[in-house]
Design brief:
By secondary structure, this protein is of the alpha/beta class. It has 8 helices and 10 strands. The protein has a domain of 144 residues: 3-Layer(aba) Sandwich (Rossmann fold). Helix 2 packs parallel to helix 4 and helix 3 crosses helix 4.
C-alpha cells in the first residue's frame, strides 16, 4: 500500500525537521546491526544552503537518502511542510555524483523526463526545459547526448533535469566529486549562482571543507560512525568568484577552524572510535 501523500501547507516556508533519527544497517530496523546514524536532531532552515560535512562512512549520504525518502526511517522522524517523510515525494529532488542521465536521451529529452512523468502540458514542458537548460548554461547543447558532453556539462544537465520538476528541496550527494579540480570550481560558482536565483532549500553532502565553506549558509559537521551532529556552524561570508573568495582571510580562518573539527572526527574514524 502506498503511503498517503501529505498536503502542502500553503505559503509555508520550506525547511526540514529531523528529530531523533537513528538508522541501522543489517538489522530489523529496531535492534542489532551496525548503527550508521545515532539520534540525529537537526533543523534545516527554509531556503538555506545546508552542507553535511564529515569523514567517510559517517552517514552523510545515508541521512540525505533518508530525507529523500529513498531509505525508510527506522527510528525518529523527518518532516517537511508537506508532512512526515514516508517515501520519495515531488517536493524533494536529488542530484547524484554519477550524473544518472539516460545515455540514449538528449539533453533536452533528459530534462523533459520528469515533467513528462508529471503529465504537464507539452508547451509548458518545452518552455520550462529550455529555461532550465539556459539557466545551467547548456544553450546550444539541447540535442547532444551525454556521451558528447564533458563531466561538468553532464552534471549541469542533471541539475537542470532536477530543477525542471520544481522541487522545493534540492538534495545533492557529492555532485562534483567525480569532476576535475578546475571544473569543480566552475560548477561550485554556477551552483551558488543558481541557488541565489532560485532560493530553494538545499542539502549538500560533501567531504571537502573548502567546498562546504564556499557554498553553504550553514554547515553540519558529523562525527565518525555512528554519525551524530557534532557542530552546526554559521557561514557569514561575502560571496563571489571562488578564486577571490578563497584567498580572503575570513574564508581561510573559517576553513581552518572547520578543518580542525573535521580532522578530529577523521582521526577518530581511522581508529574505529565510536
Amino acid at each position: 500500500m502506498n503511503a498517503p501523500v501529505a498536503q502542502a501547507i500553503v505559503g509555508a516556508p520550506v525547511g526540514i525537521e529531523i528529530r531523533d533519527v537513528t538508522h541501522r544497517y543489517g538489522s530489523n530496523g529496531v535492534s542489532g546491526g551496525v548503527v550508521a546514524l545515532d539520534h540525529i536532531n537537526l533543523t534545516i532552515r527554509p531556503n538555506e544552503f545546508h552542507a553535511l560535512l564529515g569523514p567517510s562512512g559517517c552517514g552523510k549520504s545515508t541521512l540525505l537518502y533518508l530525507i529523500g525518502g529513498f531509505i525508510p526511517v527506522q527510528e525518529g522522524s523527518i518532516e517537511t511542510p508537506r508532512g512526515v517523510v514516508a517515501g520519495p515525494g515531488p517536493e524533494r529532488g536529488i542530484v547524484f555524483q554519477n550524473f544518472a542521465l539516460f545515455p540514449w536521451k538528449t539533453v533536452r529529452e533528459n530534462v523533459l523526463y520528469g515533467m513528462e512523468k508529471q503529465r504537464l502540458p507539452k508547451a509548458e514542458r518545452m518552455d520550462r526545459a529550455q529555461a532550465m537548460i539556459d539557466l545551467v548554461h547548456l544553450t546550444g547543447f539541447e540535442n547532444a547526448f551525454p556521451s558528447q558532453l564533458s563531466g561538468g556539462m553532464q552534471q549541469r544537465a542533471a541539475i537542470a533535469r532536477t530543477l525542471a520538476v520544481e522541487p522545493e528541496i534540492l538534495l545533492m550527494d557529492e555532485p562534483f566529486g567525480a569532476l576535475d579540480a578546475q571544473t569543480r570550481r566552475v560548477m561550485q560558482e554556477e551552483l551558488r549562482a543558481i541557488f541565489e536565483r532560485t532560493r530553494k532549500t538545499v542539502v549538500f553532502v560533501t567531504h571537502d571543507v573548502h567546498e562546504a565553506v564556499f557554498l553553504a549558509d550553514r554547515i553540519s559537521i558529523m562525527s565518525a560512525r555512528p554519525g551524530r551532529i557534532q557542530h552546526v556552524i554559521d557561514v557569514d561570508l561575502e560571496r563571489g568568484v571562488s578564486e577571490e573568495v578563497m584567498k580572503r582571510p575570513a574564508f581561510m580562518d573559517l576553513s581552518e577552524q572547520i578543518w580542525g573539527l573535521v580532522r578530529e572526527q577523521a582521526i577518530a574514524a581511522t581508529r574505529g572510535a565510536h
